[in-house]
Amino acid sequence: MTVFVILAAVLPAALVLVLTARRFASSIPAAEPAEERRRPAPGAYLGWLRMRLKALAVPSFFRKTWDLWNGWAEARYRGWTKWIFLAWAAAFLYLAGSGLFFAIFVRRGLYGLPLLGHVMSGGLFAAGLAAVLILRAGAHGFDRREETGPAAFAVPFVGTISRAIVRKTVFWWFAAFGFVQVTTALASMLPMFTFNTQVALLMIHRFSALGLTLAAIVFFDLILPDRAGPRA
Amino acid sequence: MSAVKPSRFSGRARAFAGPVLAAAAAVVFILAPAEAETPPKWAGSRTPAVHRIPLNDEFGQKIIPSEPNPLPFSARTTCAPCHDYETVKTGRHFNAASPDAPAGRPGEPWIWLDERTGTQIPLSERSWKGVFKPADLGLSSWDLTLLFGRHFPGGGPAEPEPEDETPDSRWSVSGKAEINCLGCHSASGIQNHSEWAKQILRENLRWAATAASGLGEVGGIASRLAGTWDIADGPNPDDSEWAVAPFVKYDRALFDSKHQAFLDIAYPPRDSSCLACHSAAPAGSRKFDYEGDVHGQAGLACASCHRNDLSHRMIRGYEGEAEDDPALLSADFTCAACHLGREKDQNDPPLPGRMGAPYPLHKGLPEVHIERLACTVCHSGPLPEKEAVRVRTARANRLGIFGIADWSTDLPAIVEPVYLRDARGKLTPHRMMWPAYWGVKEGGKKTGPVRPLRPAEVEAAAGDILYPDRTAVRILAALQNASGLTGKAVLFAGEKIYEPNLDGGLTAVVPEAGTAVPAGDGFAALENGLLTPFVPDFNPADSETAAEAEGAIQTALEALLLTEAAPGEPALRFKGFLYRLVDGFLDKMENAEAAGTGPEWLWAAGETLRPMLSEADKNAVLTLTGTDRRLTETQVSLVLEALARGGRGNAVYVSGGKLFRLDKKNRLEALDDPAADPVAWPVAHEVRPARQALGWNGCTDCHSLSSKFFFARVDGQGPLRTEKISRRPASSYMGVDNLYHRLFGLSYAGRPYFKILLGAAALVIGAVLLAALVLAAGRLSGLIEKRK
Questions:
Q1: For chain B, which has fewer Cβ within 10 Å, the N-terminal or C-terminal residue?
Q2: Residues of A near B (CB-CB distance < 8 A)?
Q3: What is the pTM of this model?
């Protein structure tokens, strides 16, 4: 459990750090070829980060965020189906938020009304994920033409691959972790597994949730617009 | 010729070494006997020693049963040659007052019960929450022995050190009740706990073990002897009827020619010995219906788990005991130790627990239950009901003492299971009782603690207020002597009949079928189920028809003249006439005050008339007799007033989880106060088998909208008959959120559908993933392109 708590605290933070650093790097004006850009100082990164956070702390933040998500959802989910996506995304946000917060900061773990909300949101998440997969799985099929597109994402040991490939991969990872989440939650509710199995199921649920969160962060980064507008 | 090796020490050093060596030798010599007295370690034989041994009296003299006036045997001197008595005294059953004894998890306190004053005070020498230290209430070892010695195993307070003896005690007459080894370790069927209790009551303390063991017959009653009597005085030559000095007649058939007695010893003790003091059963349950503990049914004995060595520091077996008392091997005797095995060393495969106890699978049980609940929550005690179940315990309710008299008491009211958090924060089933006592609120009316008053102090201040039935009993005793009366004088009121009992109180009698109980109240003769009022219905104005009835009135009034502590002369008011005895003759005069009413029995003091039974007394008799309540609110108000008059301005009464006091207008008010908080102690028995455990039928055994586990009512119990009691749901004692568990329980109504939803979602997600995997595999292998 201690290992999980440490990983749950460190990995998302580390991933966010890496992704924001990438954004910072890409925000430097490209006066010369990218490979010749000078390495920015950490202080400059922190200043950039502070500036970005300050930019978020404006009254219009929530409206802009909503516009972004709503626009993004409308572009991909037709008609009322966008509400499926939005409800599912909200359920996921609550699940990830409550799960990680209690895992990291509350020794007892998730309990009480937040747990009740977690369970209810879990149902919504499971149904939403199934619907999203039905609606959007086709759009996340791998295509060789895309694979030969412009290289924009550097993956260690793999090399530079296209942003679309990364997004699709993350999508399916997300789906796989979601499947583990739903099955472990269901299995722990069934009077079929021994106590020791229950403990193992819960641990799998926790680690899978962490993987799910990391996948979601990467996916979010991919769809978040940069200066050039919406990206993925 | 061998050369003498020169000493390395100088002459001065040698001179110094001599005395040092002598001193060391002396120390060794002094210590040597102590070491020799240490009992030998167990050599390995499991055959118990046959105890055919000489019995010694308390002076260490061998008992010869054929001698005149032999003394009772003493366990201290009889058992000591082999079993060190001082070591045994450190045992849990005897060491409560020892400052070195760990308090451990709270256990059942002794409850000082005085029914008449409605007092039930939990006591213990151990530092447990909510209990009073005996010394704080002025209770000496002598008091404790007389109050609770019936269920003492001897030793402890019953065998005080000389410095602990108080002037009011009679130890020199009674002797001390040494540790009663045979009380636990006798396997003889003649071992008799009831006899022990009887001898303690008679203050025959040093004789109690002998009488209980059946080795001899004990006569005489030490409590009747003068305080100057000493055992060396022998029989009382002046009295062979009343103040007979205790004596023993040994059963000579139990002794051989060498005056050695055979003691049938049980090692470890038999369950029946333990249960003499540790029985508990739901009130009103039937003996033949009682299941007992699953471990007992499976063949385990109490001592299989609750073990001890010669020190008698007994393993209680609760989780965390090893931390409370590291000297014990108690970690090996918890539920987990036996049922989960020894998972201490992760490098070794876990071994099954003791005796290969069944390993619990706990299918479908979320981990949080093991983290937050003790095993006993689901597996021990009665299943939760809508209200906490009333239970009677041996020590609190005086069970297991058999004889003509009924020793058992309804009070104190103890309920179970109430789930509270233990020292480790785990929920554990508890027994619970609410203290009840009169006291004085100290240090301010609102915040100060309550100092309990001893029942004798309250009784002295309250007088007859606490005896509402005593007046009626005195009247009935007088009427019983009415000439010509062949039945039993009884009181009838509220369609019930009340007759005097042997304890000086009243017993409510259920009228036999066909017995007509007149309306109103009065006195009557009960014979063969026929109730005949002392005053028949007649017309006093008609002198011709009234003669016979007036004769009956005269007979009754004459009998009532002899009423004990009568506050006046008896009189009767009936249909506008007042009857009194004047110079032995019945005087009849008109009295318009009560024209048209039924007979009114009165005390006449001069011109003042007052009812023989006051309304308060009558109400108390009607509402309390035949119940386990002892006081009415009116009585409490009257006693508080009486205590205030006696200089105790802040007098209060505590009962049922509330503190009662008189407000500024002298009205009784009930308040919440820490002094009224209940006292609770965990229970571990009776253990139910897995199939009867809470949760066997699924989560809804506990998690439902109307869960008995979370929402059972736990009402304060006490001697006061009142509606003003503490009423709390079980969840409030657990420290959990009531609303949350209502909602959580409600969620279980939709839980099956939720599972279907999750299952369906898992199927869809799995199918899509599988399809994606197959497609990806086809693309990667080029099979799909090839097909195109």
A1: N
A2: 109, 111-113, 116, 119-120, 122-123, 126-127, 129-130, 133-134, 137, 141-142, 144, 172, 175-176, 178-179, 182-183, 185-186, 188-195, 198-199, 202
A3: 0.84
DSSP E strand stretches across B551-599: 569-574, 577-582, 585-590
Question: What's the token pair of residue A223?
Answer: 């769809």
The single residue listed with the structure tokens 């990983």 is A7
Q: Which residue has the tokens 């933040």?
A: A61
> Which domain covers residue A200, as residue numbers?
62-223
Please provide the DSSP assignment of B33-86 as one string.
HHHHHSPPPP-S--SPPPEEEE-B-TTSPBP-TTSSSPPPP-HHHHTTTTS-HH
pLDDT in tens, A56-73: 777 888 888 888 888 888
The answer to whether residue A18 is domain-embedded is: no
> How far is Cα B487 from Cα B531, in angstroms, rounded to an integer?
9
Kindly list the distances between the CA atom of residue B436 and the CA atoms of B146, B358, B450, in Å, as whole numbers in the listed order: 21, 44, 12
Domain-embedded: residue A3: no
Cβ-based neighbour number of residue B41 at 10 Å: 6
CB contact under 8 A, A198 and B759: no
Tell me if A137 and B768 make a contact (CB, 8 A cut-off).
Answer: yes
For residues A49 and A25, the answer to whether their CB atoms sit within 8 Å is no
Interface contact flag, A109 B368, Cβ < 8 Å? yes
Residue B81 has pLDDT above 50, yes or no: yes
Residues B625 and B488: their CA atoms lie apart, in Å, by 18
pLDDT for residue B31: 43
CATH code, A128: 1.20.950.20
- What number is the average pLDDT over the span B314-325? 86
Residue A140 tokens, joined: 């996340």
Tokens linked to A70: 């709503």
- Is B555 exposed, middle or buried (CB count within 10 Å of its CB: 0-12, 13-18, 19+)? middle
Of B362, B758, B772, the CB nearest to A186: B758
Q: Which of A61-65, B70-74, B595-599, B762-766 has the lowest mean pLDDT?
A: B595-599
Task: Kindly give, in sequence order, each residue whose CB lies less than 8 Å from that of residue B684, ignoring residues fewer than 6 positions away.
Answer: B317, B318, B376, B380
Q: What are B90-125's pLDDT values in tens digits?
A: 999 999 888 888 888 999 999 999 999 999 999 999
Among the partner residues B368, B761, B775, nearest to A127 by beta-carbon distance: B761
For B458-491, b/e burial (b = at least 16 CB within 10 A) is: bbebbeebbbbbbbbbbbbbbbeebeebeebbbb
Residue A214 lies in a domain: yes
**Cβ–Cβ gap A193/B363 under 8 Å:** yes
Take residue B671 and report the two structure tokens written for it: 């308040």
Q: What is the mean pLDDT of residues B426-432?
A: 95
- pLDDT of B548 reads 83
Q: For all residues of chain A together, what is the average pLDDT?
A: 82
Q: Both tokens of residue B232?
A: 């060396």
Question: How distant is the Cα of A144 from the closest Cα of chain B, in angstroms?
Answer: 9
Residues of B in contact with A141 (CB under 8 A): 772, 775
Q: Which residues of chain B approach chain A closer than 8 Å at the C-beta?
A: 360-368, 370, 698, 737, 740, 743-744, 747, 751, 754-755, 757-762, 764-766, 768-769, 771-772, 775-776, 779
- Token pair of B27, please? 């120390």
When CB atoms are compared, the residue of B361, B363, B758 closest to A185 is B758
Tens digits of residue pLDDT in B196-229? 999 999 999 999 999 999 999 999 999 999 999 9
**ipTM of the prediction:** 0.88
Question: A118 in a domain, yes or no?
Answer: yes
Instruction: Measure B415 CA to nearest chain A CA, in Å.
Output: 28
Closest CA to B154 of B100, B107, B109, B208: B208
CA of B749 to nearest chain A CA: how many angstroms apart?
A: 13
List of long-range contacts for B586-593, beta carbons under 8 Å, 24+ apart: B586/B550, B586/B553, B586/B554, B586/B557, B588/B540, B588/B550
